[in-house]
Amino acid sequence: MRRLALTVALLLQSAAASRLCAQTQPETPRHKLSASPLDDALAHLDANIDEFNRTIPSFYSREEVSAEEEPGPAGIPSLRTNTSSTFVVHHAGDPDDPDDAANDSGNPTQGNQLHESRVVHIIDEKGLIQTKEGTKQSDTGARMDSSYAIFGIYSGGSTRISTAAKVCFRYRYHPARNIHGSDRIVIDFQSWSRKDRGPNCPYADNISGHGYIDPATMRLVRLEDTESDDKGIWSWSVDYSPIALGEKTFWLPALIRSEDRAVTHSMGAMQNSPSEKTISHRLTARYSKYRQAKTSPSAPAQ
């Protein structure tokens, strides 16, 4: 499924970009103005990413996902699914974390030492689903990597707009202006052509988007991204909100929207030329009831 492949690609790109930021970004004091408004804004965002990676604790949130596939499998017009889950983000180094990213070389999110998983409780109001074999009895649902959600947003999606990512993207800075009732700085980004990008760029080709920044806090409040290849186009967006975890406030996803349109070609037994089919996948994910983990991350509180 192309959507799922793109989801994994996002996750891998985010982890690699987090490592790129960690390796190449010099510390920039928040009060120090750079040569341009763009560089100054990127320096603030760099500092935010670094602070997030250093201080974010393990936490849980409520995840409500509405997804649609059109056309659906087996010839049905569409397939709609509603999933209710506990989304779990583990910070590496937790002594009780069985999925500690520092010891999990197969986990792409270890680029900024976070591990994302979910415990799915309800699918289409049919109640708790069967616990997977090998899942701990403390889990009330099955831990799974759902094809109806996006991994990697917590683990580095915002690194698309950073000083280190200049090797991948060209940026355009727009001063603060009123957008839907709030002042926002806007930074557009677009992939450099392959011949112009840096040799260590972890991102795919043909990516563009916009970041919306609150000028009062210099926090990223919305990220929009569009990616295309020879199979179709994928667009997603994230809206961030300030969330208190312990004594600190973090800007975390409140709403994620994603739409993937993939074109497939097939040749039937009685056809002289291949037929073309477009498959669309759409999802809306809402996150709420954030809470810091105070028990073992393997047993999220309900």
By CATH, the architecture is named Clam
Average the pLDDT over all residues and give the rounded result: 75
Radius of gyration: 20 Å
Low-confidence stretches: 1-19, 21-34, 99-111, 127-132, 134-147, 296-302
Biggest beta sheet summary:
11 strands, antiparallel
Strands ordered across the widest β-sheet: 4-3-2-1-11-10-9-8-7-6-5
What can you see in these coordinates?
- The chain is mostly beta strands and 302 residues long.
- It has 2 helices and 11 strands; from the N terminus they run ααβββββββββββ.
- The protein has helices at residues 2-24, 37-55, and strands at residues 59-70, 79-91, 114-123, 142-143, 169-179, 182-191, 207-214, 219-229, 232-245, 248-266, 275-292.
What's a concise summary of this model?
The chain has two helices and eleven strands; from the N terminus they run H-H-E-E-E-E-E-E-E-E-E-E-E.
How do the helices and strands line up, and which of them pair or pack?
Layout: H1 2-24, H2 37-55, E1 59-70, E2 79-91, E3 114-123, E4 142-143, E5 169-179, E6 182-191, E7 207-214, E8 219-229, E9 232-245, E10 248-266, E11 275-292
